[in-house]
Amino acid sequence: LQLVESGGGLVQPGGSLKLSCQASGATLDNYGITWFRQAPGKEREGVSCITSGGGSTKYADSVKGRFTISRDNAKNTVYLQMNNVKSEDTGIYYCAADGAPHAHALCVTTTRYPYDNWGQGTQGTQVTVSS
Q1: How many Å apart are CA 46 and CA 130, to the nearest integer?
Q2: pLDDT of residue 1
Q3: What does the DSSP 8-state code read for residue 101?
Q4: How far is CA 28 from CA 25, 31, 43, 111, in A?
Q5: Strands, E assignment, the chain
Q6: d(CA 41, CA 55)
Q7: Which of 25, 29, 93, 124 is the most exposed place for a label (fewest CB within 10 A)?
């Protein structure tokens, strides 16, 4: 399984972006997906996650009410809609897959977890929020 992130760019504070996480090599139906971000000089942090069927989601407190995670398994893609962005949302955004049996019922946002595609050349997509 390989995931490719896209959709990043430069956006003004208060604006919107929609990120995509496209899978290849396997279908996403059995995978929970987590979005992470890493700002310059900071550790990677979990932003949001969604279970394999899309029935359950989680958000970091810093993005609740502004970001929405969704998935289209027919397109093998998970999305992160970012609204009312702030300067602190700047960073490289990555997605990770969790194919464990629990993925249909719960998703995880911790970085200390053996995600299926960790270390497979994930490039991420840069989001820069600036006026």
Answers
A1: 22
A2: 86
A3: G
A4: 10, 5, 27, 20
A5: 2-6, 9-11, 17-24, 32-38, 45-50, 57-59, 67-72, 77-82, 91-98, 125-129
A6: 34
A7: 25
Where helices occur in the chain by DSSP H, the ranges are none
CA distance 126 to 123: 9
Location of structure tokens 């979005």: 35
Per 3-state DSSP, what percentage of the chain is helix, strand, and coil (rounded to 5)?
A: 10, 45, 45
- Type of residue found at 50: I
| Sheet bearing 67-72, strands edge to edge | 2-6, 17-24, 77-82, 67-72
From first to last of the 131 residues of the chain, give the pLDDT tens digit: 889 999 999 999 999 999 999 998 888 899 999 999 999 999 999 999 999 999 999 999 999 999 999 999 999 999 999 999 999 999 999 999 999 999 999 999 998 998 988 756 678 999 999 99
**Residue 33 to residues 5, 13, 57, Cα–Cα distance (Å):** 12, 26, 10
Query: How many angstroms separate the CA atoms of 122 and 90, rounded?
Result: 18
